[in-house]
Every structure is written in structure tokens, then in C-alpha cells.
Amino acid sequence: MKILVAVKRAIDYNVKARPKSDGSGVDLANVKMSMNPFDEIAVEEAIRLQEAGKAGEIVAVSVGPAACQETLRTAMAMGADRGILVQTDDEVQPLAVAKLLKALVDKEQPGLVILGKQAIDDDSNQTGQMLAGLLGWGQGTFAAKVEIGDGTASVKREVDGGIQTLTVKLPLVVTADLRLNEPRYVKLPNIMKAKKKPLDTVTPADLGVDITPRIKLVKVSEPPARAGGVKVADVNELVAKLRNEAKVI
Amino acid sequence: MEREAMEFDVVIVGGGPSGLACAIRLRQLAAEQGRELSVCVLEKGSEVGAHILSGAVLEPRALNELMPDWKEKGAPLNTPVTDDRFLFLTETRAVRLPTPPTMHNHGNYIVSLGNVCRWLAQQAEAAGVDIYPGFAASEVLYHEDGSVKGVATGDMGRAKDGSEGPNFAPGMELHAKQTVFAEGCRGSLTKTLFERFRLRDGVEPQVYGLGIKELWEVQPDRHHLGRVTHTVGWPMDTATYGGSFCYHLEDNLVVIGFVVGLNYTNPYLSPFEEMQRFKTHPAIRDTFEGARRVSYGARAISAGGFQSIPKMTFPGGLLIGDTAGLLNVPKIKGSHTAMKSGMTAAEAIFELLRAEDEPGKEAVDYPHRLKNTWLWDELYRVRNIKPSFHWGLWPAMAYSALDSYVFRGKAPWTLHHHPDHESLKPAAQCKEIVYPKPDGVLTFDRLSSVFLSNTNHEEDQPCHLTLKDDTVPTRLNLAVYAGPEQRYCPAGVYEFVTEAGEQKLRINAQNCVHCKTCDIKDPSQNINWVTPEGGGGPNYPNM
């Protein structure tokens, strides 16, 4: 069974995101970018399935500018076998990404697609679900444990109040949650080897997908500064403040 | 423990201007002469540029020599210096002084050195250099005959107590015919080489400054593209070496920084708070009206100059850039000299390997070649300026003028240095300094500042700020010097806390911005800075 893993190049999780002064987006000039952490978990899961003999080839896919090649090389240094970059400098929204992935699934015919549950830059949490919808496949989202059986997979999900276990038919879309696994450290020789692994580049037009944005970004701004706390003398003052100033009771 | 090993012709430790220039020059020579030469650069930051912090006004002399077509290749040198100012500050006033000859910046560019390094890394990769960011060289490896064999990267995934965690990955050995140490100021491996090969015998001790820098986005009407301002005087007293820099670069960005000589004597002095206080000066604060702070960081720089340059070669390797102390102090510039030393070392290594293509040889030709370049002459001429500040600001200014204008740097004497860690006086002999509280608009506390350095270290790993004797912080540093580490550290790493009625040092290693000040200034040299897990440390954008 072939596995397709989608990886996004996102602002690094250590970097404090800062809106541009005109509010048109987040300032990414010379800011450290890396693989979306949930996608790293997705790649790790694919590799573990392969190591356990449950999967064959692992194909990593990314959508975005040429710099996404780096992200694909990281996936390949972790253990993915080859990479495909859908190269575009235009904005791509979740629906467009899902359509592009669908086109690649049609071409590559994987038995399993693993994605991060969401990207830490826009926190959309939509691509995996949309992809499953477009493909008409089952989906195991927010996966905390994945077990591949014969024609089906069991996906454990952390839901409010416990763990929900789903049995889903293959082929399947899985989105990775935080506790699915802990991604490995990339080793130096594997980085070298990854440079020699095949990386194909296609465009959205090659795949016949219209990526025109459907959603308009109005403004990006910093959250309002937190006002300092105050000390109250007694319960009456607290109640008065909650009622009259905070207006919460 | 068995570690995997990889073989290269040259391994370079550190992806700064010196290391990258060295790598590029090596590949240029290899290409010119049709030789195979594998070159690898290790960088402890998460990417090239992540740990680079500099003013910076770049003198393009070395870059012109390395890549005359840098402009066509898109080097981020976008802002020529248009206006040079030199101010003396009193608490309320600013007096414009003639700009000292070493600080003329005509033909230079205001840059983010981090971005210059990012660009150099692209050029290096295009030239066939293997660059590995996120890997810290943590150990020097030796052949049986004592020559340097290469370096090993640190283990990944070790827990706090030193045990192997679930994702443990042992370090790698990188073997090379020549290993180039380009660690920047106070390199942690270079420090061990100094001892092992006695490289500092017969030279003056190295002395240092701590530079603290902030990047601001200012209102367009407060921005003067290409303006360079340096100040001396307030808030330093005339006995303490220090001064500021303020550069206006593209996109309404302004950098403001303060350098304090680490030979200061009062343990109550806090370089961080001096920097914050400095910004409130009437001649300075105007620029930052309505502005927002974008980034923060700190880094020590070598200030010993010519007389502190160690022996730079040893069997199997050599030193380049600021880890060898090749900074021009009165110019407060070291990236052009760093690059030049890297290029010169590359030429020496290339010739050496052409004659004797085997490991463990000493590139003895490197220092000779360096002595015949402009770099050596430049450093020699200014060698007496910094040490003269030992006499205080005004005598030093007078002496510097004499040294520069009358002797033109060729005075028949050379002034001496004293090690920085010996300069602190006991707290009892000093006056406590009370700093104003930060206002959260122009001035800030340490923690909100460190936040902007984007620094992070994997939490569950052994502490990389090691103490030789863990009773020293309370027994000596706190008792005699009132705990200077809590003040000189610009990242709030060191904190004295009371536990069960006893004061104890707490080390918040996660905050560390890799400036190396503690390793330099600790009075009994009890703190040893070693590399944390690769990829840890600041993630400076545009610094």
C-alpha cells in the first residue's frame, strides 16, 4: 500500500508571528520557516507504518513556492521515498489544496493519505476533511493511534471525555493529532541521501485545478494588549466590578 | 559508544560570514583548478542566520574580492550609508563630535548580517557546499598523533538527567583533512583548542564587549534611510567602556544597540538595563515615538584586537573570524575581516591539500598569507585604541586622536589588556545602581525582550550552562559580588531564588541566546558554556 503524506511549509513554531504594519498578512520576510509540526507527525506515522511492513512507498507532497522543496527534502530525510511539489506562488486555500491533492491521489493511487490535522499558521483544519469528501473516502481525523488491518483501519481519536475508536474502510484519509507519535530526529547522512531522492515539480495547471481563492482575507492584526489586573478589597467590590465594568454577571 | 562517521576534505564549524566565505572560496578554487573537494559547514542554529546578530554596517571590501558580482546575485546590501554621526551624550544633552577616522562609513552598507549570511549560504550551496543547520559541533576529535581529526555533533534526544530518551539519536563524527573553526566570539570548541595546543601563549588575553540589539519598525516620518549614529558617554560613566549604535535601514526599520565593555568593575552594572535606559535619552527617544519593537538579541564580541590574536593554526585545523578575535574594535566591524580571514584560510588550505592530500597537517601558511593582506595592517594600526580606554573616556579619546592622526597607528608601543573576569570589584566596594522601571513602550524587562529573540531549547535535555563547582554561585558570586550573573546575562538565564530559606542559583537554560557573556565574565570562570542540542537557541529574523 502506497502512502501519500501532505506537508506544508509554515512559520516556525518558535517564531513570534507579527502582522505586517498594513494588516495585509503576517510578516514572513527572512523569518524561519519549517514543516508544520502536525505534518511532521504525519510523515513519522507513515514511516512507522512502512517500518512495520504495513506500507510500501511513501510519497510526500507539498503545495506552494519553490522554497517548499526544503520541506519535502526534510520529509525525505525523515524517510519519505520521493517528493512532489505542486509549485505556485499564488495563495492557496484549503479547498484548492484538497483539490490538488485529489488530483495527485487520482494519479498516484495511494491506499492511505496522511495529513496534519491543521497547519499552525492559519489553523484552518479543513484540508483533510475536504479531501476525504472530494475522494468519497472515509476519514479518521485527529488521530491519536492508527492501526492498519485487512481492508480496514482502526483510528483512535481523543474526544471530550475519552477515546473514540473508529473502524474505517481503506482507502482512507487520516489527519494526525499531537499525540499520534513523536517525530524522530533527522540524521545527517539521511539529509545527504534525501538530496538524491526524486523530487517532481508540477503546477496546478498541469493537474487541471483552479486554485483561485474563494475566501477574502480582510485584515490581520495583533490581539489587543492585555489590561493589567486590579486588586479588590472585598467581595462586594468584586461583584460590582464584574457587573458594571466587565459586564459578565 | 560507536558513532557513525562521514568523511570530508574540509569541515567548517559555524555558518557565519567567516565560515561561509571560507566554504565558498574553497569551492571556487576547486572549480578553477578542476579538483574534487568536499566542503561541509555545520551550523548550530536552526537555519543559517538564526544565531547571527550584528549591527551591522558592512564594509564590502572582502565581499568585493569574494564575489565581485554580488549585486547581480542579489546580495541583501540595499542601504548605502548616507549620513555618519558621532555624539557624546550627557544625561540631558547630546554634543556632536567629529566622527573618528575609523568610523567613517562612506561606501559601506547598513545590513542585516543574518540576511547576508542567509544569502551567502545560498551562494555556498549553489557552489556545492554541504550546509547542515541544526547540528552543533560539540566535541573535537583527535588522531592518535594528537592532530585534529574532525568534530562530532552533539547527541539528540538525551533527557535532562543525561539518559537516552525514546527518540535518542547519537551524534555523528565528521572527519576532515582540515577542520576550520569559525564559531564566532568565544567559541566553545575553540576554547578547548586554546588549551590543548597552547594557542594563547605569549599573546595578550582576549577581552570582550557585550552587544545588545533591538530592531524597531518606526514611523515613516522618524526614519532617515542610511543614517548611522554612534554615541559615547551617558549612561556609562567615563570609566566604563561602552557606546551605542543606531542605523536606519530599509522598510522603516531602525536598529538600536548598546555595547558594554565586559571589563566593567561594578557588579551592580546591568548591560541590559543600561541599554534600556539609554533609549530614554532626549536625543534618542524621538526616533521611537509610535514605533514597535520587532526583535531583540545579544552577542559578545571580541575586543582585544591585534595583540590578542592567538596562534591560529594547529595540526589538522585552524581558526578564522571572531573566534580568533579578528574584529576591528574602533571600527566596531568584524564581518569584513571575518570573511577575509576565511578566504585567506581557504587559499592556504587549498594549497596545503594540493601538496599533501592527507589529514592532520598544519596549514602554517595561513598566518603568513594573512599578514600580507590589508586585514593585518588594518588591525595593527588600531591596536592601541581600545586598551587606552582603560584610562577612562577622555584620556582615551585624546590618546586615540594622537595615535590615529600623529602616529597613524604606527606608535612604537603596544598597550596591554587585563582579562575581563578579573575586573569585578567586590560589591561592598561598589555603589548599587538603581535602574528605572520599564514602561513597556520604549523600555522593557528581560523576559518580554527574550520573547522577541524567538529562542527555544528542547526542555528535556542536559543543561548546557555547566558549572565546574556548583557551590561557587552562592559561596562566591552572591556573597562577594552580589550575584553579577543575574545582571550581566541579557536573557534572564540566571536567577537567585530562595528555597527552604537558602538562596540558590536557578539556571533557566531555555532562555539562553548564546551570547557567551557568562562564560566570559564569571569571576572565577566557573561557568562553562557548551553547545545544547542542535537547532536550539534564538531564531533571529533580520538581525
What can you tell me about this protein's structure?
With 249 residues, chain A is an alpha/beta fold. In chain A, 28% of the residues lie in helices and 26% in strands. The mean pLDDT of chain A is 95. In chain B, the strands form six sheets. In chain B, strands 1, 2, 8, 9, 10, 13, 19 and 20 form an eight-stranded mixed sheet that branches. Chain B has a seven-stranded mixed sheet with strand order 6-5-15-16-17-14-18. In chain B, strands 3-7-4 form a three-stranded antiparallel sheet, with no helix packed on it. In chain B, strand 22 and strand 23 (502-507) form a beta hairpin. In chain B, helix 1 packs parallel to helix 7 (335-355) and helix 7 packs across helix 8 (365-371). The model of chain B has no long low-confidence stretch (mean pLDDT 94). The A-B interface holds A 12, 14-16, 18, 21, 29-32, 34, 182-189, 191-192 and B 4, 6, 46-47, 49-50, 112, 114-115, 118, 130, 132, 134-135, 153, 156-157, 166-167, 169, 172, 174, 217, 251-252, 294, 451-452, 454-456, 539, 541-542.
Mean pLDDT value of chain A: 95
Largest interchain contact = A-B, 21 and 34 residues
In the predicted model, the low-confidence regions of chain A spanning at least 5 consecutive residues are none
Shape of chain A: globular
Overall average pLDDT of chain B? 94
Assign the CATH superfamily of the domain at 5-69 and 115-204 and 306-381 in chain B. Answer: FAD/NAD(P)-binding domain
Oligomer: heterodimer
Provide the CATH topology of chain A.
Answer: Rossmann fold
Strand-and-helix sequence of chain A, N→C? EEEHEHEHEHEEEEHEH
Measured by DSSP, the beta-strand proportion of chain B falls in 15-25%
CATH top level label of the domain at 5-69 and 115-204 and 306-381 in chain B: Alpha Beta
Topology-level CATH name of the domain at 5-69 and 115-204 and 306-381 in chain B: FAD/NAD(P)-binding domain
Q: Over the alpha carbons, how many angstroms does the gyration radius of chain B reach?
A: 22 Å
From the N-terminal CA to the C-terminal CA of chain A, the straight-line distance is 57 Å
Which ranges of chain B are low-confidence, i.e. pLDDT below 50, for 5 or more consecutive residues? none
Text of the CATH class of chain A: Alpha Beta
